[in-house]
Amino acid sequence: MMLRSLSADFLKIRGKGIWLLIFLAPLGVVGIEALNFGLRFDYLVGKQYADNLWDGLIKETSVFVPISLYLGCTLVSSLIANVEHQLSSWKQLLALPISRTAVFSAKFTLCVLLLAVSCIVLSIGTIILGMSLGFGTAMPWKDLLTMGYFPFLASLPVLSLQLWLSLSFQNQTFPVSLGVLISLVSPFFMQLSEWFPLNWPLMAFHSEHQLWFIGFGIGVGIIIMLIGLVHFNRKDVD
Fold first, then answer.
1. In the chain, at which end, N or C, are there fewer CB atoms within 10 A of the end residue's CB?
2. Strand positions, DSSP E, the chain
3. pLDDT band at 198, cuts 50/70/90?
4. Has UniProt tagged this entry with the keyword Transmembrane helix (predicted)?
5. In angstroms, rounded to a whole number, what is the distance separating the alpha carbons of residues 65 and 99?
6. 238: pLDDT strictly greater than 70
7. Of 191 and 117, which is predicted with more confidence?
8. What torsion, rounded to 10 degrees, do the Cα atoms 92, 97, 101, 107 define?
9. Dihedral sign, CA of 108, 114, 119, 120?
10. Alpha carbon of 143 to those of 41, 53, 56, 198: distances in Å?
11. 216 contacts 199 by C-beta, under 8 angstroms
12. Distance between CA atoms of 127 and 135, rounded to whole angstroms?
């Protein structure tokens, strides 16, 4: 039942600009790093990261990953929820022989899959950038492939919260504003404990205790998702 709903949701997002966002967001991060290395090439390549160019590129790129993930979670959740809100189709959708649990789970799964694709694009884009800068083929594949996925798993609480709020409010001003605020203030919380929730995505990639932050991200994300699911099952629809 959930798979049928997921298949329907994939059809609904066609022509909504969501796929464009999925590709443009990670390419934007890569573009920032291309500009960064282009403007400071002699310093970054010749001095700061001369001993390990690939690690330097990954380190510089990973700083922007949490911010882009928070924005991605916000915009993808809002756009997916807005498909139903704009058409005022909740009553028709929930009148079908499909449970609310399946509807909510399908939309959460869709968000996860879309953002997973975005993480792949980020890794591929970073590889292309490094090759273009002449860093060679001796690249740290593990770090390149996990640069997006480890932080993404640690950011699942934000995704669960944003989807819950986006499905609950027909007017998307509050969910989007909250998500943008989280994205903007997240760098300033790096001065706090690494266990502060907004620091989990960065720590999931850079910390020695990566699995702890990934585990907490998945666990808290599931808890928030289940709370949102219970609320969605009990909520009246317009």
1. C
2. none
3. very high
4. yes
5. 35
6. no
7. 117
8. -50
9. positive
10. 22, 13, 11, 21
11. no
12. 10
Q: What is the mean pLDDT of residues 142-147?
A: 90
Q: What's the pLDDT tens digit per position in 86-142?
A: 777 777 777 777 888 999 999 999 999 999 999 999 999 999 999 998 888 788 889
CB 185 within 8 A of CB 202: no
- Token representation of residue 52: 């390990």
Amino acid type, 220: V
Pairwise CA distance, residues 218 & 212, whole Å: 10
What does the alpha-carbon distance between residue 116 and residue 154 come to, in Å, rounded to a whole number? 13
d(CA 221, CA 8): 24
**Type of residue at 213:** F
For 133-192, where are the alpha helices, taking DSSP H only?
141-154, 156-168, 173-185
How does pLDDT run across 199-229, given as a tens digit for each residue? 999 999 988 889 999 999 999 999 999 999 9
End-to-end CA distance of the chain: 23
Residue 213 contacts residue 204 (beta carbons within 8 Å): yes
Residue where the block lists tokens 């995704």: 159
Buried b / exposed e over 200-233, threshold 16 CB at 10 Å, is: bbbbbbbbeebebbbebbeebbeebbeebbeebe
Label residue 157 exposed, middle or buried (CB < 10 Å: 0-12, 13-18, 19+): buried
Residue reference for tokens 């993930």: 69
The four Cα atoms 222, 223, 224, 228 give a dihedral, to 10 degrees, of 90
